[in-house]
Amino acid sequence: MTERAAPFYCPYCGDEDLRPFGDKHGEWRCGACQRVFRLNYVGIAADWTSSVRSAAKPSAAGEGAS
Ligand SMILES: [Zn+2]
């Protein structure tokens, strides 16, 4: 699997010292506030008010297309 997009700023303190944490994909640790957080994909929403069409199944295009 290719490397996923990385967050640029800590969502809690705004610092930029983020590094992958542990072995799992999508978990990051902030070096400034020491928080560990997880990014995960929820699904597709056509616009700001529509409900999310869940696409959690890895059969969707894009996942693992390396
Ligand atoms: Zn932080």
SSE layout:
Elements: E1 18-20, E2 27-30, E3 36-38, E4 43-44, E5 53-54
The structure holds zinc ion.
Q: Mind explaining what this structure looks like?
A:
- There is one protein chain.
- With 66 residues, the protein is mainly β.
- It has a single domain, classed as N-terminal domain of TfIIb.
- It has no helices and 5 strands.
- A 3-stranded antiparallel sheet has the order 1-2-3, with no helix packed on it. Strands 4-5 form a two-stranded antiparallel sheet.
- A hairpin with a 6-residue loop joins strand 1 and strand 2.
- Residues 10, 12-13, 15, 30, 32-33, 35 line the site of zinc ion (ZN).
Short description:
With 66 residues, the protein is mainly β.
Molecular shape:
elongated
Spatial order of the strands in the main sheet? 1-2-3
Order of helices and strands: EEEEE
| CATH topology grouping | N-terminal domain of TfIIb
From the structure above, extract its key features:
66 residues, mainly beta, N-terminal domain of TfIIb, three-stranded antiparallel beta sheet, two-stranded antiparallel ribbon
